[in-house]
Amino acid sequence: MNNVITGIIAVAATFLLYRGSKRIYMYKPSSFTLPIFLSTSSIVILMLLTGISYETYMIGGRWLDFFLGPIVVSLAVPLYREIKLIKKYAGAITIGIFAGSLTGVITGIAGAKLFGFERWVSETIASKSVTAPIAIRITETAGGNISLTAVFVTIAGISGAMFGPVILKMCRIHHPVAKGLSIGTASHAIGTAKVLENSQMEGAVSALSMTVSAVIVSFLAPIFLSIM
Q1: What's this model's pTM, rounded to 2 decimal places?
Q2: pLDDT grade, residue 176 (50/70/90)?
C-alpha cells in the first residue's frame, strides 16, 4: 500500500478513536474513560487484531508526532497568563519540583534494583517521569533501551492523568499550585493536559513543573545511576 494512503488511514483512525473516546468520557467521566487511555488502548488492540505493525502505523503516526513540539510550546500560554501567581509561590514551587524530580529518579532506579532487574533497566526507567524527547536523550547517554523508555514515559503520563487527581483528592490536596506541581512533575505533558481541564492556574504550574523537572532529572539521573 502506498505510504501516503497508509499515513492517511493511520491518522484518520487515530482521530476517530480519540473523538469516540472523548464522547464516552463526556457521557461517563472516570479515570478509566479518560480519552488518552481509551484511544491508546483502542489503537493497540486494533493493531493486534489486524496484525498492523508499529512501523506501519507510524507512517502516519509521525505526522501527528510532528505537531507535538508546537503543542508543548503552546503550554507556555497559560504559564505567561499566571506569571504573577507563579512568582508569588516561587519558593514552594522550586522546592516541590526538585523534591518530585528527586523522588521520580530514586523510585525508578530503586524499584528496578528491588525486583532484581539488570542494570540497563535502571538506566531506562530513571527518566520515566520527564517528557519523551528529554527522557530518550537521558537514556541514550546512560546506555538504556530507548524504545522501552518511550513505553515507561507513556505509562507514567497516562497513569498520572488517570489516577493523579484521585490520589490528590484522597490525600485532601486541593490547592491548585500543589496539584499542578505534583501532576506536572510526575506525568509531564499528558498530565498537564489533564489538569488544564480543571483550571488555567493548575495547567500553568504543571507546565512549569514539567519543563523544569526535565532539566533537573537530566542532572540527577546520571548521578544516582553512578552511585546506586
Answers
A1: 0.77
A2: confident
